[in-house]
Write a structure and sequence with these properties.
Helices cover 72% and strands 0% of the residues. By secondary structure, the protein is mainly alpha-helical. The chain has a single domain, classed as Nucleotidyltransferases  domain 2 (Four Helix Bundle (Hemerythrin (Met), subunit A), Up-down Bundle), CATH 1.20.120.330. The protein is globular, with a radius of gyration of 15 Å. The protein starts with 6 loop residues before the first helix and ends with a helix.
Length: 138
């Protein structure tokens, strides 16, 4: 976790770990997803903002150019994933895994009867570690 430079992202990861260790599996899914999105938002801001805004505007003429990470949060996460694939930040296979993670996050983040266990959480976090944190956080 020391390799994660951004304080906000590090706090999300720490909370996700605490949730997992406490058996709060749905919360661990939600917090780890927030951490991954934070990393991806930071990557866009640092290295791809102009390309991202151009692609977002191309797809949606009403898009108001993002200038901050909070501005990026105005976009639905599924659309955000589509934009970052289009500009080459991630590939289609990584996007497919992240979209699956987003679906799991949505299932865990809203009232319903979904149950998840330690192994599902571990697999989710491992996928985020390998495809987001290790690639963009160091």
């Amino acid at each position: 976790m020391a390799a994660i430079k951004d304080d906000t992202t590090r706090a999300f990861v720490a909370e996700a770990i605490q949730c997992h260790e406490s058996g709060l599996y749905r919360s661990a899914i939600v917090m780890s997803w927030l951490a991954a999105v934070s990393v991806l938002h930071n990557e866009v801001m640092a290295n791809y903002l102009a390309a991202f805004n151009a692609e977002a505007k191309r797809v949606d003429g009403k898009w108001k150019a993002a200038a901050t990470t909070d501005d990026l949060g105005r976009m639905k996460e599924v659309d955000f994933l589509d934009r970052i694939v289009a500009i080459g930040i991630i590939g289609k296979n990584v996007k497919a895994q992240l979209a699956s993670g987003l679906t799991l996050r949505n299932g865990c983040g809203h009232p319903n009867s979904l149950k998840v266990g330690a192994n599902v959480v571990a697999a989710h976090i491992e996928m985020l570690l390998m495809n987001v944190f290790d690639k963009f956080s160091t």
